[in-house]
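SAMPLE LOG
Freezer: B-3
Tube label: C17
Construct: single chain, 296 aa
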Amino acid sequence: MKTFSPILKGMLLVCFGTTLFSSKSILIQLAYQVGASVDQLMLIRMLVALPCYLLLGVWAWQRLPIKPSGRDLMLMALPGFACYHLASYLDMWALQFLSAGLERILLFSYPIMVIAIGVLQGGRLTARQSLGALVAYLGMGLFFVQDLRVQTEVPLQAVAAVLLAALLTAFYMRASQTFGRRYSSDLFTAVAMGITGLTIPSHYVAMHGANLADISITVWGYGIVLSLVMTVLASFVLNRGIAMVGASRGSVVGMLGPMVTLFAAAAVLKQPITALHIVAVTVTVTVCGVALVTRK
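STRUCTURE (predicted):
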């Protein structure tokens, strides 16, 4: 029986994790339609997810032959705070003003940022990988231009917020590769997400107090799905894939994510999508971008 290579397995995991993460934009905008706020969704997501990360962290810790130092634990926690608190807040705030498709295109500028960070740290980039990323982003650029033509207004503050979130995500992915390979991707995920179990509730209490009675059952439902499916499951799958294929390659393969969001936004949220959108994303990103990166 033919088995998948570790690289192919890693890429499939990255694609699946990215799909789950990409779908959260749709769910968040649906939650906004029933009165949810950014702070409420952030809080529910973390309250539900925290026990999962604590359990996994204990399990991963017990399996480690070499335990991380206090310094390494802190270096794992900082990217988690940056990505899952700061970047998530910026991204969710911007979704109040941008279409789900445009938000994904902006957020998925992070693969180029990941590659650039790797090069600055002394990493090597193959010509095929560079060409794959370039061609893929040309397709995304076409989509971005077309999307701007059908939007009545695109607030620059929201665009800047998503781009900053993308940069924070890029740093997180580099850290995921480093510590996932040094210790384990499960431990890194547990520590990175676990720290936000302290910072996000503290943020909410500081802004709104400790009363949760104002949060409706419907909002809780959206928050629970956002937490268990599009945060817990997605983060573990994505980090496991990144640990197997590397941050740069994983980021480029993960550019399939915007395609999922674009079609889902059109189907669920009735957001506009044109023939140029479909051609740019399907042909350029999927065929050229991914094929060139994965080809030997």
